[in-house]
Design goal:
The chain has about 650 residues and is of the alpha+beta class. It contains 23 helices and 21 strands. A hairpin with an 8-residue loop joins strand 4 and strand 5.
């Protein structure tokens, strides 16, 4: 029996021990002999590369798996690099294996020195890092895309901070939004850089980080600081950054400059507030005249025989109605301007006549308030190419404004002078004045001087806005000046002087005060019976023969029987409307020469076109002024030149 030599048992035991270790290792391992044949492979190698021991053991390494391992990089490692070095670590090999696909591997090679009579072995450890490399590449691509995105998003400041709030990254948005270059920002505590002093003092930066750490994110909308100390309204969010174990690493902050949006919202809120104030004031201003109107009516009923009381009540009612009409007219003008519907009717007119009309309009208010008014005009006649009614409205608005905001017994001055190629009109008063911060905004719609300064003064806050629009429509400018509260105010209107006006051509005056209409047969139609009856009585007192009707059907019957020269016809009536009544009147031979006058509360340009299309000759807006109605009747020398060809026997226009 052969006995084992004393040193054989340890060697055999050591070999078995090595086999156990090799097969226990989870990474693929190969032990190659000097001829690069596989002396030993572990289970992980068989499993990873899908080969069997029979296909592997004692196989030339380059022939493994039908040549799968014949890799130039592996040859370089085993035949050139390893002989020169006892070991080599993390040698990266990228190869596509037919059985398992594309792989990235790290090879670690070691020379195993043996006894002198035995050839050295090679230990080849293989680490498959394909998934890790793919993950790293995906992360790099993601970070690259994120970095590119962050760098391109210039409207957002996007940066990261450490746990203490020091900036660790920067994008161009930081420079655009906050004003900091990268070297000025990265590494610095962001709290003192971007938070306002009051927020820093109250601990806002730290609380924001704490909230982001505990809740995941913290949103903020507040005033922040730019480089240099200027403030802007920022909308942003701070988010906590954590690793795969949930450990807090730092924070990301994204913020955007929303100053314009904030100011727009504030402007909208301010407009809503002023609108609400305006509606409240409007209700107040419309109700105010009703009390004296009702009281005056009671006085006229009770003291009908007292001429003095009757005349005083009549005067009061006239002033209050005039005030209500003025308020409504201003509202309609504002609506026309806001929708671009206002049109100027320019013509050559004497400036002195326009000033006279404006002063006469406001004279009752001036006298009632016991103000003194001085008017200064250029020594030579001045003619303008303007809309006389609208320019008179500009001056009367400014004068009325001076009257309202000047205490009783004050002084008001209207000065008109010629300066080079323009006319300068100045209205100056000794009233309550205008705060310096309102000199520009006072021309905005619904703006009122501080109510504590106004006390109980009336006004809707639209007069000056309307005035500014009218001045600008004439190509002029207007500005307000005031030395301060309680020291009066001054409004200056500048209008360009026209060139080439014919001084000898007729000059249009604002009103023909000597109009004396002849007696007419007039039919008044209105579904408001009080309105129809009182207007009929007034026209009757003035010497006209009148009848009334309260709907369209009755109007047709009365017109056929009465054959009036003039029909004052309301438009909005139940049943047969004024439009249809006008058409049917024009269809009758006896109705074609009647003067049809639309008497309505609708005064827009579209309303006027519609009445003309329906056959009306004139369009008057309620409440119609008696002087305007008298002028219309006085101008009726003969039937209108135009007639509406709506029947077979209608005259041709």
């Amino acid at each position: 029996m052969h006995k084992t030599a004393p040193n054989e048992q340890p060697t055999t035991g050591a070999g078995q021990y090595a086999d156990y270790i090799v097969n226990t290792v989870r990474e693929p391992l190969l032990i190659l002999n000097a001829q690069l044949r596989v002396k030993l492979a572990n289970h992980s190698f068989y499993r990873t590369f899908k080969v069997t021991p029979e296909e592997t053991d004692d196989c030339y390494v380059y022939d493994l798996g039908n040549g799968q391992w014949d890799i130039p990089a592996l040859r370089h490692l085993l035949e050139e690099m390893l002989p020169q070095n006892a070991a080599f670590n993390d040698f990266e090999v990228e190869h596509t294996f037919p059985s398992i696909g594309h792989r990235i591997m790290l090879l670690n090679a070691r020379r195993i020195y043996q006894e002198e009579d035995q050839a050295d072995l090679i230990l080849l450890a293989i680490e498959d890092v394909t998934e890790r490399k793919q993950a790293e590449e995906a992360l790099r691509e993601s970070e690259s895309r994120f970095r590119t995105l962050v760098e391109q998003v210039k409207d957002y400041a996007i940066f990261m901070t450490d746990l203490e709030g020091r900036a660790t990254s920067w994008n161009e948005g930081v420079q655009r939004v906050l004003g900091f270059e990268e070297a000025e920002f990265v590494g610095r505590d962001t709290g003192p850089l971007i938070f306002t002093p009051e927020d820093q003092q109250s601990g806002v930066p730290l609380r924001e980080l704490e909230e982001a750490a505990t809740k995941g994110s913290a949103s903020d909308n507040r005033w922040m600081m730019r480089k240099g100390g200027t403030r802007f309204w920022a909308s942003g969010v701070t988010t906590g950054l954590r690793d795969e174990n949930g450990e807090l690493l730092g924070f990301t902050k994204v913020m955007r400059d929303q100053t314009e949006r904030k100011r727009a919202e504030e402007a909208l809120q301010d407009a809503d507030r002023r609108k609400d104030e305006f509606l409240a004031i409007l209700a107040h201003e419309l109700r105010n005249p009703l009390a004296p109107l009702r009281t005056s009516l009671e006085l006229m009923r009770i003291a009908a025989d007292d001429a003095a009381v009757f005349e005083e009540a009549r005067g009061t009612m006239e002033r209050q109605v005039r005030q209500m009409v003025r308020l409504i007219d201003d509202l309609l003008d504002v609506s026309r301007i806001s929708r671009g519907k206002m049109r100027l009717q320019k013509r050559r007119v004497s400036l002195a006549a326009v000033v006279q009309d404006a002063v006469e309009t406001v004279r009752p208010l001036i006298d009632e308030s016991e103000h003194s008014l001085s008017v200064t005009l250029p020594p030579e006649p001045v003619y303008l190419h303007v809309d006389p009614a609208r320019l008179a409205q500009v001056l009367s608005n400014l004068l009325s404004n001076a009257v309202k905001y000047t205490n009783s017994g004050g002084q008001i001055a209207l000065a008109v002078e010629r300066q080079a190629a323009e006319i300068v009109m100045t209205v100056k008063d000794t009233g309550i004045g205008i705060p310096a911060d309102m000199l520009d905004s006072i021309f905005e719609m619904f703006t009122q001087v501080d109510r504590s300064l106004e006390q109980s003064r009336s006004g809707l806050g639209i007069g000056l806005a309307l005035t500014k629009h009218l001045v600008e429509m004439h190509g002029g400018t207007i500005e307000a000046k005031s030395p301060g509260i309680g020291r009066g105010s001054e409004f200056i209107v500048r209008l360009p002087l026209p060139t080439g006006l014919n001084e000898e051509s007729p000059v249009v005056q604002a009103h023909d005060k000597d109009a004396s209409p002849a007696a007419r047969r007039i039919l008044v139609v209105d579904d408001n019976q009080d309105a129809a009856s009182t207007l009929g009585m007034l026209l009757n007192v003035l010497g006209n023969e009148t009848r009334t009707a309260f709907d369209g059907e009755q109007a047709l019957r009365e017109a056929e029987a009465f054959r009036p020269e003039v029909v004052l016809l309301d438009l909005r009536m139940p049943g047969l409307s004024g439009y249809e009544a006008a058409r049917q009147l024009r269809d009758q031979p006896w109705g074609r020469d009647m003067v049809l006058v639309a008497l309505t509360g609708y005064g827009q340009e579209a309303d006027r076109r519609r009445t003309q299309e329906a056959g009306f000759d004139h369009h008057l807006v309620k409440p119609v002024e008696l002087a305007a109605l008298q002028r219309l009747l006085a101008d009726m020398v003969s039937p209108p030149a135009h007639r509406h060809a709506q029947g077979a026997d209608s005259p041709t226009p």
